[in-house]
Predict the structure of tRNA-2-methylthio-N(6)-dimethylallyladenosine synthase.
Amino acid sequence: MSRKKEVKREIKQNKTYCIKTFGCQMNENDSEKLAGMLKALGYTEEDDVEKTGLVILNTCSVRENADERVFGNIGAFKTVKKTNPDLILAVCGCMMQQPEIVNQITRTYPQVDLVFGTHNIHQFPELLHNYLTNGKRLIEVWEDSDTIVEDLPMDRRYPFKAFVTIMNGCNNFCTYCIVPYTRGREVSREPDRIFDEVKALADDGCVEVTLLGQNVNSYGNDLGEDVNFASLLRQLNTIEKIKRIRFMTSHPKDLTDEVIDAIADCEKVCNYIHLPIQSGSTRILKKMNRKYTQENIIERVKKIKERIPGVAITTDLILGFPGETEADFQETLKVIKACEFDSAFTFLYSIRTGTPAATMDDQIPEDVKHDRINRCLEVLHQISHDINQGYQDQIVEVLAEEPSRNNPKRLTGRTRTGKLVNFSGDASNIGKQLLVKITAAKTFSLDGEIIEQEATHGTIDPHDDSIPANS
Ligand code: SAH
Ligand code: SF4
Ligand code: F3S
């Protein structure tokens, strides 16, 4: 850090905060922990950056545009600090695990007061205290950690659904991906600690949990022989008041029959799997270090569909990975058609400095990437449209989540298969499981009408949420 930047400043205590979260659910869950720690210190939320005392930017580095958005945000605080001079600006998350980014911040963004990383968020109260007492810019980033700090306070966004991180880190080193460098190696939480957390959530009125990990299928590999993801699902399925168990993300290479059987057998585990395939070309998958082939994908998807009735499968795709030819792209289209994914997140390959793919030959021109993503979306949208048509006039179980963005008189919620449903209803329905009749099926969402308030668990087969209305 350059000496002239080490200026001390007098800080007036303003115990309000605003957290801006970028990136994945893992970051959202970390932000809930930061909010929990701040509330424990007596802080309250104030989202107006002109008035708030503390802003935390929890950053993501997965693609270049994620980095750019964060730098844009940090830049804007130069002006904000002129009208709100006591504001403390803290930056944390995945971008901070890269020394060159921290260097760039110390060199060019004097408005940043506090920097910490993904491995030491539990230190945040101590770092904030140090900053408040010294008034000097503070940078503390740990390279890695082999433990998970338990029992951090958590300020959860929703009372009826919650994220539960079951493991940190990733050991896979897919050649395009920055995450193993920003989140370190896999560390699983003890199953009993996860069970206790989910049980406490259930006792508190939470009905849906989403188990988080970069590759939940390798959960427990570091814990011993009798613990794995399948056993965890079976254990959590016994918690009475939990009605829905979701998880993400599943890596196809580790999606064993044992896991598929557990999903099929556990009535609370939703019939929905997010299974990122990234590409359908075996040649590209090898260059990506994904450790499965086109045949493996098609076989796993077939097995999932046979074993789990009514299952929805979504995926992630990267278009324009280095060396991807038109023939490779056609292989991806072939797999999409064979697997009939309910939907997909599609990404243009983005160079991440420090990853092996960044220096591979044959980087694909941007216009070719765009053309492929557009052609890919055409195929995906047609499949989504056709699958969603099957929901027309069906009665589905929906967990009502929040007022619809476009029309406050309507609510949005999700089926067990993860489909977004818009339906008429008022705020008193939020957090309830309802039976909803689908009146219009669109490509990206469904419209419906409530036919029964508060569906009791077991009213319909939780693994088949598409029961004909007149049955
Ligand atoms: N652990 C998850 C993925 C987490 S990152 C898994 O393996 O499935 C979320 C998604 O971002 C990935 O599935 C991938 O599709 C995309 N992604 C990651 N790195 C990328 C890059 N360099 N360029 C474009 N997309 C990328
Ligand atoms: Fe990235 Fe691959 Fe790990 Fe997923 S499994 S986080 S894509 S390295
Ligand atoms: Fe982004 Fe880090 Fe998640 S890089 S996708 S916030 S693990």
